[in-house]
Sequence to fold (584 residues):
Amino acid sequence: MSTPPLLETRALYRNFGALAAARDINFRLEAGARHALIGPNGAGKTTFVNLLTGVVRPTTGAVLLKGRDITGVAQAERVKLGIARTFQINRLFRRLSVLENVYIAVAERVGAAPSMFRPAGRRRDVVDESMRLLETLKLSGDAARRISELPYGRQRLVELAIALGLKPEVLLLDEPAAGVPSAESHIILDAIDRLPREIAVLIIDHDMDLVFRFAERITVMVSGAVFATGSPREIAAAADVRAVYLGQASRG
Amino acid sequence: MTEPVDHPAARALAERHRLRIWEAIPWLLALGFFFAFPKHLGFGTELLVTVLFAISLDLVLGYAGIVTLGQAAFFGAGAYTVGILAKQGIWHEPITGLLLAALVAAAVGFGSGLVLLRTQGLTLLMLTLCTMALLEEAANLAHDYTGGFDGLDSLPIAPLFGRFEFNPLYPTTQYLYVLAVLFVCFVFVRMLVYSPFGQSLRGIRENMLRMHAVGAPVRGRLVLCYTLSAAIAGVAGGIWAQANAYVNLGTLGLDRAATVLIILVLGGHGRLYGAFIGAVAYISLSHFLARIYPTAWQLGLGLLLVVIALFARNGILGIAAALRRPAHRAAS
Ligand SMILES: Nc1ncnc2c1ncn2[C@@H]1O[C@H](COP(=O)(O)OP(=O)(O)OP(=O)(O)O)[C@@H](O)[C@H]1O
Ligand SMILES: [Mg+2]
Fold:
């Protein structure tokens, strides 16, 4: 066999009571991938990200990172292994400043967070790395502001900044531009376009323009199962995909 | 490597822990009180112990967002440690006695924290309350050691440094001793809340799910914070027992736990100095109200709390902070 994919699932199932939110998902994410996951509302996309990150445990099946079985590995440990995500609905430290939000992530990654006997500000390395990250996302102007004072679109950028502060190998973006006025969404999409190739990106989005422009591979999910996987061209051409999904969403 | 980023936000974070001039005020007032009101040092000692206890609560509630109604469990654990050791003739020296009180309270905090901190919100609140009630009942039943309902009095506490007696009628030693211990504990908590660890506690308070998603060992941090807070509450309880030469079931009771919670909410939680302001405000208010409405003063306090809960979520210090900020930011 050749080298294992970066992230892989094997026969992944997850039931919520009678509802099968994930059904027999065999999925591969290659290193440096630009992969999109699409599907109608309630298809199980977020559940799948939760399974990959350890928020939700599979009923059966396995998650593998570089060939290693991480199904039993806790959420925080998976972050240390290089899997980071953003949330469909903002999960930010709302009463803290933008800089502090990123600081928390960076401090956690570099192992500064447990330290009790020196002030947080003395870790200039963490402060500076956080500031530089904000600069690359054109957020430094808001660094001192509280999250709760920011417009939603800027908050979405902080979601991304926190995930990037973890220096992940795998980045899972759950509808990164959801809830952002279309006039502002390009700022987020530009930031995603500029992500370095060392990061493998799995993006969930309902915006077909974005998906077909960004992705080199697309997986379509319908009611908990993978319906189709292929290049954007293959997906666009598949008549049944159009019927279940693309037909409902505008593509022009 | 690369040069530091010069940005107002980076500078503000880098200098956040610097001492401000106004931070000397509470300590100067406390010293001033010693000289100005020599007849009221008993009252002053009680106030300082209350501040220390409130600071312990601020660490868990204000910074880590752990909602607890059972903080007096640790106060009582510390108080009974000092009381039982002294009464049984095992240990009389005050400073090491406080360390023992801290240790016992920390052990109670660690043990209960391991179990309780799996839960959140209302469940957690109820469980902290139950833990405290269990301890209180245990203290009531272990009559031979704790004196049961009557408690233990006339505790033989050795003079401080072998020289300064704890005189219950002229509590000058007690006052300065409590003030010094309060100062040491405060410096410790202040260091903690401005450290990266303290920053991660704020993160847990603001969004626990996100903290998991940045790879933080959330429960370990919470248990550690809870244990440290318990140790400080234990010191508060221990020093209270030493200063009064006395322990009773009230040290473990809901009354004490609720009062300290009210004090913190009144002063402002998660603000370090809220404990000071809250304790002074609470005690002055209850004295004032008790004088004008001797029978119904608690009603006035209750009404005030409702007003604070509705209109000033961050307490007195929160109001002060909102007034200092530009209007458009205060509005949000
Ligand atoms: N924790 C849970 N408990 C019970 N049911 C759940 C849970 N999480 C998700 N579900 C259900 O699983 C199904 C899939 O939900 P999921 O959020 O994964 O869909 P999605 O594809 O992300 O949808 P959307 O496009 O609306 O975000 C839904 O029917 C949802 O109600
Ligand atoms: Mg979703």
Q: What stands out?
A: Chain A touches chain B through 55 residues (CB under 8 Å). The two ends of chain A are 42 Å apart (CA to CA). Residues A 16, 19, 21, 39, 41-47, 88 surround adenosine-5'-triphosphate (ligand 1) (CB under 6 Å). Chain A is about 35% helix and 25% strand.
